[in-house]
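To close the section, here is one more complete example, presented without commentary so you can practise reading it yourself. The ligand is FNR.
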Amino acid sequence: MNRAKRKIEHIQHALATFDHGAHGFDDITFVHQSLPDVRIRDIQLHTALGELSLSSPFFINAMTGGGGEKTLEINKGLAEAAKHCRIAMAVGSQTSALKDDKQRKTFEIVRKVNKDGIIFANVGSEATVDDAKRAVDMIEADGLQIHLNVVQELVMPEGDRDFTGALLRIEQIVQNVQVPVIVKEVGFGMSKETAVRLQEAGVKIVDVGGFGGTNFARIENKRRSNVMAYFNDWGISTAASIVEVVQSSPSLTVIGSGGVRTALDAAKAIALGAAAVGMAGPLLRTLVEQGLEALIAFMEELHHDFTFIMGALGTKTIAELQRAPLVIRGDTHHWLTERGFD
Ligand code: FNR
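Output:
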């Protein structure tokens, strides 16, 4: 099957497949504060990913790589929403456009629509330094995501089977690319062991891409009568993964993503130590099924609700929210205890 057709199928299945919902956020409870001492209009949502300043902790995470006119339209819509809401946006994997110039316009549209916005390029861990530089240049990117998607590759018949050398290539890219590098998972979560190795390789920002949201094992298995069902529940929940990475690797800036669906999920991700939150599947679904205005309304509502939650907690800044008291119960508590976190 050609790459463009596969990408369209991914989108269709992502839209059709319900989230798994095992992100772990339901195990997190904020501790209510009766004297918050804040004015809602004083609450500030800006945050930082390394040297990058973001006016909102929410961003549109990577979706839709190559795939012709349809993905171009989707990228255009996502870019318009990002511009309107002044949020950052990652493009989907640019691998196809690195191989075939005709695919470039699918990505270039994002910069054309949103000239001054924060945009992240996206490549896989098979990328060389040259690939990474070309992906950044293609869209004048402000940052570069490198995705790690071993399980997704394994469940695809046409996927990679050789995963050697990824850490070395990542290290070389970090050393040679001029923009901040974000290493991200795609829905299987990141462990403390992985985070420590990335930190040692010079990575400064990781996106945990945790389990509990869009699930590529299920999407791929659905396309082909569940041949690898053993990967359907594979992964580290987003809540547990954020704690693993934050607590094991203090020099990393952490992005919480994977199953973030509400302002409350996002606030919990940040209170666990994330600096920003990425959302993918639900934004695509809203854009494709309900249109651009609905996507913008959804993002505005998220910001509104997020601000109210910060108000209730008495936190005026993202840095204060990162320290908000919370209680961890259930499976997430059990996981973290087993993994040596208090
Ligand atoms: C993705 N995702 C993704 N990630 C990446 O780094 N490069 C890519 O090309 C893609 N492509 C892609 C296509 C589609 C249709 C979806 C829904 C997702 C993964 C995405 O960035 C994110 O990590 C996961 O989707 C988990 O987040 P959500 O969807 O649960 O918010």
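Once you have examined the tokens, check your reading against these statements. The chain has one domain: 3-25+57-293. The radius of gyration is 19 Å.
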